[in-house]
Design goal:
The complex is a heterodimer of chains A (113) and B (112). In chain A, 0% of the residues lie in helices and 53% in strands. Chain A has strands spanning 4-7, 10-13, 19-25, 31-37, 43-49, 56-57, 68-72, 75-80, 89-97, 101-104, 108-112. In chain A, the strands form two sheets. In chain A, strands 2, 4, 5, 6, 9, 10 and 11 form a seven-stranded mixed sheet that branches. Chain A has a four-stranded antiparallel sheet with strand order 1-3-8-7, with no helix packed on it. In chain A, strand 7 (68-72) and strand 8 form a beta hairpin. Chain A is globular and about 40 Å long. In chain B, strand 6 (56-59) and strand 7 (62-67) form a beta hairpin. The chains are: A mainly beta (113), B mainly beta (112). The A-B interface holds A 4, 6, 30-31, 33, 41-45, 48, 58, 92, 96, 100-107, 109 and B 32, 34, 36, 41-46, 49, 89, 91, 96-97, 99-100, 102-105.
Chain lengths: 113, 112
């Protein structure tokens, strides 16, 4: 099964700054996704990270706020730009494999002050 | 788009009792239904899943049932243990490789 390493695990950031979250997978995967989980809430899909092309964003999420890169089949980054306290959430990377279905990284707990 | 409703939002049981969490979905095109367990400070972990060509699936103390006609599926945990305490999420997807839509989660508390 794919092992997902997500960095950083947590961070406290000043409003107006940006944070880039990294997701590294130990095997090539076709599908990679980024989710947001606000405190005490469920998971909401931000975007599908497409290898070699622009990410596909869900309604309510835009590239200027959440730019995503996916340079190859094992790595992706999500940047949270111009942060405000409302961006305080857990951000999760997810991949899909035929054997294990959807698996999630351990998440990045972001607090914006 | 797909909408997944999950009940109850919290569930408290005594150790050894059974726990049942129920979900309904709206999109008849959905064919893949996973369940996740999320412990505090961790990412969700897949515990069991079912596809629409199967009505029931069991893995030790955990089982999932699916009624495709009624568009609902349930998670059953028997002989609950304190380490089962966590938040459980149901989800639905069209293919299992497309995007997942999650329910709002159920906090399960198992008291010794």
């Amino acid at each position: 099964s794919a092992v997902i390493s997500q960095k950083p695990s947590r961070d406290i950031c000043q409003r107006g700054t940006s944070l880039t979250i990294q997701c590294q997978v130990d095997s090539q995967v076709t599908m990679m996704f980024w989710y947001r989980q606000q405190p005490g809430q469920s998971l909401t899909l931000i975007a599908t990270a497409n290898q070699g092309s622009e990410a596909t964003y869900e309604s309510g999420f835009v590239i200027d706020k959440f730019p995503i890169s996916r340079p190859n089949l094992t790595f992706s980054t999500l940047t949270v730009s111009n942060m405000s306290p409302e961006d305080s959430s857990i951000y999760l990377c997810s991949v899909v494999s035929r054997v294990r279905g959807y698996t999630f990284g351990s998440g990045t707990r972001l607090t914006v002050v | 788009g797909e909408n997944v409703e999950q009940h109850p939002s919290t569930l408290s049981v005594q150790e050894g009792d059974s726990a049942v969490i129920k979900c309904t979905y709206s999109d008849s095109a959905s064919n893949y239904f996973p369940w996740y367990k999320q412990e505090l400070g961790k990412g969700p972990q897949l515990i069991i899943d079912i596809r629409s060509n199967v009505g029931e699936k069991k893995d030790q103390r955990i089982a999932v049932t699916l009624n495709k006609t009624a568009k609902h599926f349930s998670l059953h945990i028997t002989e609950t243990q304190p380490e089962d305490s966590a938040v459980y999420f149901c989800a639905a997807s069209e293919t299992g490789y497309s995007t997942l839509t999650f329910g709002k989660g159920t906090m399960l508390l198992v008291s010794p």
